[in-house]
Amino acid sequence: MPIRTPSADAAAPSSPQHEITRIAALRGVHSAFSYLHNQEMEFRRWQCELTEIPAPPFGEAARCEWLRQRFTALGLENVQVDDLGNVFGLLHPGDAAPGIGVSAHLDTVFPSGTKLDTREDDNKLYGPGISDNAAGVVAMLAVASALKRTQLHAETNVVFIGNVGEEGEGNLRGMRHVFSSSPWKDCLRSLLVIDGAGTDTYVTQALGSRRFEISFRGPGGHSWSDFGVPNPIVVLARALARFSEVHLPESPRTTYNLGVIHGGTSVNSIPESATVRVDLRSASMKELQKLEERLRECVTEAWSEVPLSYRTGETKVKLAFECIGDRPAAELPADARILQVVRAVDKHLRVQSFPRLASTDANVPLSLGKEATTIGAGGDGGGAHTMREWFDCTNRDLGLKRILLALLALTGVHE
After folding, report:
1. Comparing C-alpha atoms, which of 102, 100, 60, 55 is closest to residue 84?
2. What is the DSSP string of 214-273?
3. For position 348, what pLDDT does the model report?
4. CB neighbours of 150 closer than 8 A, spacing ≥ 6?
5. Torsion of CA 400, 401, 402, 403, to 10 degrees
């Protein structure tokens, strides 16, 4: 017998807090909570198994296949992998278009060949990527499994997404593809992103970033016999010294980082090239654009100081300015339904949480005007992006309950 119907909602809308209280009292939800608590050892096995499968940037295929098999085994419908490697599974059968998405990224920051051994010590799991984002993928699987095993029926279809390309130079390519080329790009009205550990935050602002690779290339030569030939390292250093003096606003917070620099072959050789990779970030697209413009100005000014003969002749100094990453900044409206739901869930579960600014897969739908937020998978974690990464499974089920309740409130539910 339906507990909630669209017509009933239209006649007597309830507050998100009342809705969460009603949903949490359903027998099927109690059953799902018990399942999420009792299957902890299985979740640990999934997490270690996934962590030991390599997923370097642009090399996620093995993990995609692992997740495809898990989706199929859990009984999700219309399981498929797109041409980028994103894995999809629908909660309900048939042609019902999903209105809600739940996602977790599959890729890691670790390059091909990294040793991916895992180990367990009491409630702690250790391994590179064990928290970011094996914990998120397992949380997504756990919630999907709980929904399939209980008598809960979401009124809106849900698509579960394991996406590629979230980290670093992946540049959110997987999520961009979901909202530009997937069969459900237009019908997905909101997205719940699961990334990393914890229960104490929810993302309300998408941190924008732009990344560039800047190179100067010249003729090079011997340090003695060719002295006077423009040195690309010197030209680049001048540009970066100018840029380092840029004034940045405290609000909206805006930052930059000179993360990688290289050039030259020996101490007695004038280098043929010098390259730097620069990361610009801001909560404001306007400030991000201003910072990029100043960077370009500094680089152009430094290049213009190279003698004209070395800018136009056969042995000219060349400048290359390439964008290698672009993540949009955006903000969730204060009255967004997904925001009200997450806050109501946290109040019901007595979770002390706070909003935060972050760069996640939620950047993409937020920049398109869709509702999205990013939350953790429960438990606790640390050492992200290092070989010392860890995940503490204690209270993982609190995070899983949080995800489940939020999803059910967003979809509507009956049993």
Report:
1. 60
2. EEEE---EETTTTTTS--HHHHHHHHHHHHTT----TTTTEEEEEEEEEE-S-TTEE-SE
3. 98
4. 28, 29, 31, 32, 35, 415
5. 50
- Residue entry with tokens 């237009």: 186
Mean pLDDT (whole number) for 380-407: 97
For tokens 């698509």, the residue is: 159
Full-model pTM: 0.90
**CA 321/CA 212 separation, integer angstroms:** 7
> Residue 3: its pLDDT value, please?
37
Query: To which H or E segment does residue 316 belong?
Result: none
Q: Where are the beta strands (DSSP E) in 328-394?
A: 330-331, 354-358, 371-375, 380-382, 390-392
Cα(403)–Cα(397) distance, integer angstroms: 10
The encoded tokens of residue 206 equal: 């998408």
Distance from C-alpha of 340 to C-alpha of 369, rounded to nearest angstrom = 17
The predicted pLDDT at position 169 comes to 87
Q: Residue 11: its pLDDT value, please?
A: 38
| Tokens matching residue 24 | 């949490």
| pLDDT at residue 1 greater than cutoff 70 | no
Instruction: Please give the span between the terminal C-alpha atoms of the chain, in angstroms, as a whole number.
Output: 7
